[in-house]
Amino acid sequence: MPAFPEVEKIVYEGPESRNPLAFRHYNPEEIVEGLSMRDHFRFSVAYWHTFRGGGADPFGPPTAQRPWEGPEDNVENAVNRVSVAFEFMEKLGVGFYCFHDRDVAPEGSSLAETNRNLDTVVAALKGEQQRTGIQLLWGTANLFSNPRYVHGAATSCNADAFAFAAAQVKKALEVTKELGGSGYTFWGGREGYQNLWNTDLKRELDHLARFMHMAVDYAKEIGFTGQFYFEPKPKEPTKHQYDYDAANCINFLRSYGLTDHIKLNIETNHATLAGHTMQHELEYAASQGFLGSIDANTGDLLLGWDTDQFPTDIYLTTQCMLALMKYGGLAPGGVNFDAKVRRESFEPLDLFYAHIGGMDAFARGLKIAAAIRADGVLDKMLKERYGSWDSGIGAEIEAGQHGFASLEKYMLEKGDITPNTSGRQELIENIINTYV
Ligand code: XUL
Ligand code: CO
User: What predicted TM-score, i.e. pTM, was given to this entire model?
Assistant: First the structure.
């Protein structure tokens, strides 16, 4: 029995189509700048939202209608859910998915039983991967839901919580390898603090780094060669997360000698929670050589918390694609929809509308970004703006030929600077609008 009997495979029908269950812009085979759309994006579905999100909020219980869910959260139900998930992803036409260990399989009464539950579900995931060709983009461990992690996991004041988390990540790495995952993500969960009166910040940071080194060492030991990602998020659930933003995470990785092993997984709603744009976070991470993968979603600036909505804003996706293309793309990372349908969108069909909209928004962003790049309009303005660095004193400074004394001499002779030119922000914004 299919879970989505009313949905056929979603296909590209072109911009004129009015079929809500078709792509208007995402055409997996279409080549843009020498690469198919499929390979530009490497779209991924987030198992935790799409197959485990029920729409509960602090004011009420889940609302989502998920007729395939059994009455109990047991292994049988989890295995059945795997077929539903792969039917969905196959019909949608995405190549990848991501999961936390606890999204796919329920916890048992002991760690041993929990691991057995996971093994059973992983066998089902592997079977469906082989049947469909859909791959695991990255795996991760949920180190935040169980009350044992009330004070955090790697940064807990309780050493046993650290040890339990280590055992959990060990297993998560093993199953990620078993499923051929191309990455493994650390999102801090509760790695942060609520107030400093009861927190040894330095000790907690040291522990987080030790934990990551252990993960890197264990990956080597078992031959897991996937890329590790660190996912910045400034707040939620704690007031101060240790993985605040791209700059903060990069500083952490550099301080603790982890730069050879870990890149960043940048998420839109986390960027805005940190007071940044996604464009800023992508540019910052990529400029430092740390762009790994992205969690595609969007927040609501009027609400201001981590609403994890599906991205539909074409300016946002254009900015994302400009950054990604500038720095050579994402592989082995991808565009993972870490996004959930609204509590009010409770029908199974809404899962399709949401993902189709996100994929089409990214496809439009790609086409617009490619057109801007082809015309070279931004490049030309940037080149002109920094022209003073291409010859004369600017080129000499960049070549390391000057110090303060020689620059003083230069300015004493010249008297004052060559006049500044306009930044032309409004003109550039108008030009961008002609492409959107
Ligand atoms: C939480 C979040 C996580 C990570 C994976 O805000 O984004 O779902 O992406 O743990
Ligand atoms: Co995320």
Answer: 0.97
